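During the practical work, I worked with a single protein chain and the tokens that describe its fold, as given directly below.
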Amino acid sequence: AVVSTQSTGKQEYREDFITFIKNSEEIDDFISDPHIQILDTIAEHLRSVVPSCGALESETIINLDDPKTEHIDAFLFPDDVLDDLCDDGLMSRHYCLTCGSKKTQKLDLVSHSFSSWELKWLFTKILPPMNNKTILDVGSRLGCVLYGAAEFTDASKIIGVEMNTDFCVLQQSIVERFKYEKVEIVQADIRTQDQLLRTSDVIILNNVFEHFMSKEEQVKCWDMIFGSIRRKGQVLVTVPSLQESLDDLEGQLPNGWVEEVEWELEDELVPDECDLDSLKSIHVYQVL
């Protein structure tokens, strides 16, 4: 999908148009969305049972204790909630370069989930309609992508593959509580799910391997992805880009496997609730 405005050749016309759009009912509807309210309700429930970083004691995250990095789950803690916690001194966006001084540096915030707003933008602005499609989320963890797909698409199947038992139990409880009948949770290593990878129409890979596996294991997972996702027209959604994920592994994309689908983002048309940098980190590919 393309988010753009037609150029009139005059900057003032463009600015007037953007002002009109930002004050239109369409933007109001985008912001005051009952689907977002449902996702916020889910997030509020999850905040009561999951640590702020979104990591459970039963899983291992590489560099979780790095003092320069803070793992903050964007679905659990959107900017407004995070701001309130920072104001109350319960969280911080900065770390001290010299203990006790005012010399501080911004923390590198890492999230393993899309926020509610990113999910809405992904499924309503970036991707085409999902009617009768199968959406697969690899490493579904808290299930945020699954709930977003259930709220914003007409996909026929929405499947999450997750290795961790605790996460699977947590996801299943949300699926049952909110009656997401099209959502299925599969507890498995993705390397055992060749058929799912081959038959799914949209495969989502959000920070899926690099924070959780050794480089050797990551290479094995990518080899599985390359070998199984081969059907022409299949769509991959990745954060970060495929090449960025492979650079640290000294790997390369198979020749002629996929092409990136460019999508445009008019910054001025994005509601304040959407994080621009996070949206720009979303990459979409189509299998050739």
